[in-house]
Amino acid sequence: MNAPEKLTTTANADAIRFLAADAVEQAQSGHPGAPMGMADIAEVLWRRHLRHNPADPKWANRDRFILSNGHGSMLLYALLHLSGYDLPMAEMQKFRQLHSKTPGHPEVDVTPGVETTTGPLGQGLANAIGMALAEKMLAAQFNRPQHAIIDHDTYVFMGDGCLMEGISHEACSLAGTLGLGKLIAFYDDNRISIDGDVAGWFTDDTPLRFEAYRWNVIRNVDGHDAASIDAAIRIAKSQDPLHAKPTLICCKTNIGHGAPTKAGGHDVHGAPLGKAEIEAMRAARGWQSPAFELPPEVVAAWDAKASGAARQAQWQGRFDAYAAAYPHEAAELQRRIAGELPAALGTAFDELLATEGDLQKKVATRKASQIVLEAISATLPEFFGGSADLTGSNLTNVKASVWVNHHGAGNYLSYGVREFAMAAMMNGMALYGGFIPYGGTFMTFSDYSRNAIRMAALMRQRVIHVLTHDSIGLGEDGPTHQPIEHAAALRLIPNNRLWRPCDGVETAVAWRAAIERADGPTCLILSRQALPPYRRSPVQQQQIARGGYVLEDCSAPQVVLIATGSEVGIASAAAAFLDKRGILARVVSMPCVEVFYAQERKYRDFVLPPGLPRVSIEAGVTWFWRGVVGDGGIALGIDSFGESAPADQLYAHFGLTAQAMADAAAGLVGDKGEGG
Ligand SMILES: Cc1ncc(C[n+]2csc(CCOP(=O)(O)OP(=O)(O)O)c2C)c(N)n1
Ligand SMILES: [Mg+2]
Question: Is this model's pTM higher than 0.70 or not?
Fold first, then answer.
């Protein structure tokens, strides 16, 4: 590279440095270190390699860029602004302010060009691995000879923090096995994290670690030398596609590079540089422009609008040729990317619910779930199943499941014992588009996935968690495996939906709600043990979708018994006991509390008449239900850990019996005992 080019390259990267330093200074909040340290890598990647179109951030065949070290958000905002996305300079000045397009950490659907919400370290990397998998599978399904319409790379930036997080092991190990050769990750090896020099807490041989994962590792790249960075990217992209591996480019960098006195230390990680340091940096780097102004030649050098439009137009030409040769495939791909459900899906659900079959028999709801999957999967090619090594227990597979292979064919993935990576990869797939991912594990291990479930809720992504073995009903495996607080905890996540169906029909309705819901995740909470079926009128069957409904009624109820899942049977038996004692009880099944409380007041009051005493039962913590039953009501449940024993003994041990529920209800209506 000759001298003038090098100068421009440096100036282009310095534009990122000054935007980041000035925005953080203005906000008096944020992280200048990573953007300044990775500016040179970003400049080479974005200006020489990244295939994107600022005018259409959703272009299907764009390269994906994920900033997994999301605290460096100003790096991404600077790149988007400089490239010509709809992110004007005014937004740089509003960094971290209410309702700006430049929030503290990158948020999908807030800023054009942000592919996923990052900040919780390690998850962006796992999202990117999900996206790279989605690309590989979509390409395998839709590309045809001479028509490679899905064919792009997925790039990730990450720092020490992402690599220290355990999820990086889970996800990168799987990425190596799957041979995701179009995934290119850059490690910002600056030897600094918040507490200081990582020598005291992070001394892994990272290149060796990734070689052990079967990645293509490029070591010792000078992260401030454009030619070395460029060469590394070219090596990553020149792999034989048949044997390609994910690439890790290890870049030695200097955190806060350019700051005259603060670079290289942990103080630049997450604090404003200070006016004096920024002015000294301006002088040292010969940067004449004031804050939030840029030299015209730098603006021109960065502008990717024309090149991006040309690139997309060229792809559009290829897509049109594909559509002419393969009209059915082209329409189907467009449908899937748009996230529209096929009409046949609704018909399959309607038929399943209208026809007497195994779903309407006594069945474990995990088994009912598999019956549902068997009935609908063929209509939903975007459905992508999996399990964290519990397929035979979660019953997430169907006869037509094909395990994903090295070439990207298949519709089912054994994620291995990697719950968190599974959840975060599913988020990546949902964000990518063209797939509706669902994955299974035991409900108690939803804690391992929890932050990724939260991120799906925050990002409004359609991801479905199949959580089986949902209570002490799983029996002998004992308290480690028996979820107690999990249903309540999952219900607490805003925009998450939790369904705990009581029989096969409710399971089908829950699956339908999960799939038809396009703006957030759903957790399906399913039993290991068989549960009896209920008979419902057509109206009752329709009301299941309202989250809660009257399952068994009487002429003038004196008390309402509310239950979910396997405890609905206990509530109905309790109602029968009460009836013998001359007490009239209504049984309400409430498979989805969140959906029920989203119904209009009239319906809620119809199901739970104000003033009538309430008793709830769920084999989990009671405090969640106290709000539903109110001060005068009784919530039956378990406020300790479970025990190891056969399930029926456990229900008796924890007092979750029809007799106990009947006694509680009788007490509320003033009946003190048999005949009393
Ligand atoms: C899961 C998670 N834990 C903790 C944090 C808080 N945090 C933000 S950045 C950071 C240090 C990251 O170090 P590194 O990735 O090396 O970033 P650098 O200082 O080099 O920019 C921490 C602990 C977080 N964002 N996510
Ligand atoms: Mg670091």
Answer: yes
28's torsion region: left (phi>0), alpha (psi -120 to 50) or beta? left
CB 370 within 8 A of CB 440: no
Token pair 């900040």 in the structure block, residue: 119
User: Is there an atom of ligand 1 within 6 Å of 267 CB?
Assistant: no
Give the whole-angstrom CA distance, residue 59 versus residue 51. 10
Structure tokens at 673: 């005992």
- Asked if residue 571 lies in contact with residue 617, where contact means CB atoms within 8 angstroms, the answer is yes
What's the rounded Cα separation, in Å, for the pair 638 and 471?
10
Whether 635 contacts 616, CB under 8 Å: yes
List alpha helices for 377-526, DSSP H: 391-394, 419-432, 446-459, 486-491, 504-516
Band (pLDDT 50/70/90 cuts) for residue 78 is very high
> At 84, phi and psi to the nearest 5?
110, 15
Which ligand is closest in space to the CA of residue 158? 1
Q: What's the full length of the chain, in residues? A: 676
Half-sphere exposure of 181 (CA within 13 A, CB side): 14
Convert the pLDDT of each residue in 226-244 to its tens digit: 999 999 999 999 999 889 9
Ligand 1 centroid – CA 18 distance (Å) = 22
Atom of ligand 1 nearest to the CA of 160: 16
Q: Give the pairing of strands 614-617 and 530-531.
A: unpaired
d(CA 284, CA 169): 41
Residues 15/298, Cβ–Cβ less than 8 Å: yes
Quick check: 589 and 570 in contact, CB under 8 A?
no
